[in-house]
Amino acid sequence: MRLFIAEKPSLARAIAEVLPRPHKKEEGCIRAANGDVVSWCIGHLLEQAEPEAYNPVFKKWQLDHLPISPDEWQLQPKPKTRKQLSVLRKLVKEADQLVHAGDPDREGQLLVDEVIDYLKTPQTKRRNAQRLLVSDLNPSAIKRAMGELRSNSEFIPLSVSALARSRADWLYGINLTRAWTIKGQQAGNRGVLSVGRVQTPVLGLVVRRDQEIRNFVSKPFYEVQASIHLNEGAPLCFHARWQPSEACRPYQDEDGRVLNPKLAQNVVNRIRQQPAQVKAFDKKPGKQNAPLPYNLSSLQIDAAKAFGMAAKTVLDICQSLYEKHQLITYPRSDCRYLPGDHHKEMPQISAAIRSVLTDAEKMIQYTDKSRRSPAFNDKKVGAHHAIIPTSKKNSGHLSDSETKIYRLIARQYLMQFCDLYSYSDTRINLEIAGGSFSARERITLTEGWKALLPAKDKKSSPLPDLSVGQTVWSGEPVFEEKHTEPPKHYTDATLLSAMTGIARHVKDAELRKVLKDTDGLGTEATRASIIELLFKRKFLQRTGKSIQATETGKQLISVLPESCSHPDMTALWEKQLNDISEGQGSYNGFMQPLNQELDSLVTAARVATMPAMTSNNPGGGKSTFRRRKKKTKKPA
Known about the structure:
Strand content: 15-25%
Low-confidence stretches: 617-636
């Protein structure tokens, strides 16, 4: 008997659909006519044991217990899903062949692997287990995946990476949450001060941004534009911006803005009604590929910008489109590329898009099934590919939000079959009264894939064709006083963007060199839940689209060591976890330094002075931080 173990019941049902009928539904599984059985997990059936499972004395939170680091790790069944674990125990014993059908990412790999391991499956059966990679719940896609089964042993590095992540989170969260909660209680504060290796650096990003805004002092700066005419007395042709010379550096800020109004006014007086000589003229055509199809984070960012949707909302909608409607492929993908053989499916997918979107033809008219964008690249596709529409035609009603997200995914996919966007860039450098001025402009030649985007207002006056050495005329200059603006509060889009491109926020210059653009805080599957967790614990709050830290969030960051609230260490961990999943790193190479770091962090907490603070409460109920009342002596 062949046993398929899916991550969720919805996937199990989809797998069963392609197996021979009749089917027999039993408790916790479905039996097919050929003897195959499909069963499922319900998310993680197992969880890391609590500290008291290792030693009863750990039930009481005490600083001298820390750091708690198990020699032999223990998993325990989740109470709510213990019954399904019992079903799997019987089926695994009965099975001749196991087929791992977890989601195609590191958590999905571990989720089923840990069950197989926990049930003490014989080594031979484990070694012979196969891996079914499903990213599309439609029958044709599952049949194709069935014909491409791989050895589950190929995915051991992915599972080890997830295991290291799980244990690292346990060690970091258990030890530092206990340490700082105990320190808070010693200072008279109440409640739990939750610390996590990903959530706390994310909170730190928001707290520091809020602080920048709070401390920001606006300063005036000055810009000068020359009004250029083809000759004296001719109509205005274009404006050219002043480019301050090196001699102006003492009067500029770090961003090159001129802070001295007299300097700018002097330039105005010098260039008024003066000849201007063309020092450089450059006109170059260019072409631009369509943006790649979505992974989860890029979709969440665009949906936040377009519709103001929270990251968790977008993920929930995607799960519905994937599991309930089967209209999109696996949504928790971190990949933005597609297998080469997917190119030929364009006609069927286009037909499916027509069945879902009433205005689909407005986009499809610009496509050509023979075009092939760089997105089709087998070398850049791992266990899963980009999020795209499936070939399933719509057979049910979609909500307004589901339609919006589907349209984004469909549009991004159809762009891969559109012409390139082509343009012409023009650059003019002028010299006026010894000063340097420049003008730049991009003119669209063919819209290509941009025709699928919402229309934007277009400039109607392109820069003229000039020749080097030509003399034109500088008329009445434009003098502008502007004011520096504070950074903006984070939104769902910008916070997700910061998490995915965390290298920009890393303090250590050497570490920034090591991190890739794709290295980030958390994973595609966890970022939305991390942000929501910070809201749930009352560390973050929303004001319109803005995300800001609460008083509790600010106070927690203020007392933690910098390494806990900056992303450097966590970003490096994420890179190391990714290296493990790709077979380029090891479990011990990751865990040993982590344990050493924990020793240092717990020691720092032990000797820290924790002030009593007043704040809103993370988690409801009474305040987490409470100022202690001063005792007053009774008069003698």
